[in-house]
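Appendix B, record 7
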Amino acid sequence: MLCRLIWRLILFFFFPLWITIWIAKIVIPIYFMVFKFFLSWCWSWWCPMSATVLRAAEKKLLSYLKTPYKGRYVDIGSVVGTSDKIWTIALNTESQKMPLVLLHGLGAGVGLWCLNLDAFASQRPVYAIDVLGFGRSSRPDFSKDADEVEKQLVQSVEEWRKEMKLPKMILLGHSMGGFLAGTYALNYPERVKHLILADPWGMPPKPGTDQPRKSKLPWWARALLVTMQPFNPLWAVRVAGPFGQKLVERTRPDLVAKFSVAVDGDAKAVSQYIFQCNAQRPSGESAFHALNSGLGWAKNPLLNRIEEFSEDLPITIVYGSRSWMDTTAGQAVLERRPASSYTDIKTIMGAGHHVYADKSEVFNDTINAVCQFADECSDTEDNVTNPPEEPRINKKAKQQSKSSRARIASNEPPSSAVDRVDRKKNITS
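Structure tokens (predicted):
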């Protein structure tokens, strides 16, 4: 009798609770699904991202080209996501010369090479890709660990190379793309004929607390960057929603102006492309954030690994004279590499961080000269004995200029559009 009473009491008190829990297990997931869908709908309404608009904006930028090009998605398999695809444009693929592969920087895409592709493709095959996580390529979930992210990005480039059946290539990377190109060359030196780093990010190590930091940014900009460290770099573009494109135009009028010639002065076409590249899911940005330490320093900088680069790998680093990047890292690379290794440091006068757009003609001549040098050097040849010919723009000034090393020591301004610092062993300007 007592047992029955106890059982009835248990049922009376706990049965409604059990029913409530059972209902909650069904209702709560449905509620969260609806809420997530609602938030997604609100976000898509607020931040007007569109793959169609991005494609149209890219097409408008590339309409500047006189060289025919082909664009396609290259399936690289499950490198990070389940089926990753890299958007690729190819020019002059019939040429038998060494191909040039271009890797863009943070927040960019293949469209921003529009001022360079014609010049490059006049000499050889050229391939420009939207790095995985950027532009029109797939946007998978990268790891949060810097070493793992680096491996994922490097592997994505290698799988792309395999699919494209390129035995060897001249690899050119700008900014973050320079960091990626450098780490790829570290892992697959046999696949890189010549490594070209254009104003690369991630070269020098972060200064210690006891070392003075030389920054070209004003104090208020540094303070803002410290505050925004937990966020992805371009979060403001997405938060601005329908005003994001205007934000790009207002905050980076210089960047918009650089490419206006490619779209007949239509600034909105340029800002639209940049906005649409960064309004989508910030997959590549998250990868960059994982690689980042503090105010834009790399957690695993290339300069700390410069001794690991193959001695047979020729390296050319191209800086803009007005860039905010730490250009002293290039000189450190020059000093740390063996005397038998080819290393060339170039500075394009009057150019900033976007060296490929600021002085596009000089940049194009410089890169073509480096590529021509790579063609002339066989795998068994000493790469140090035949430096590349100076670009046409620099030939007249070459006879009047002093050696680059002397200018560095005395802080004299360079006397030509392209200042070259070569390997200290029997190569001087």
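Remarks on this record: Confidence is low (pLDDT under 50) at residues 382-386, 390-416, 423-429. DSSP finds 16 helices and eleven strands in the chain.
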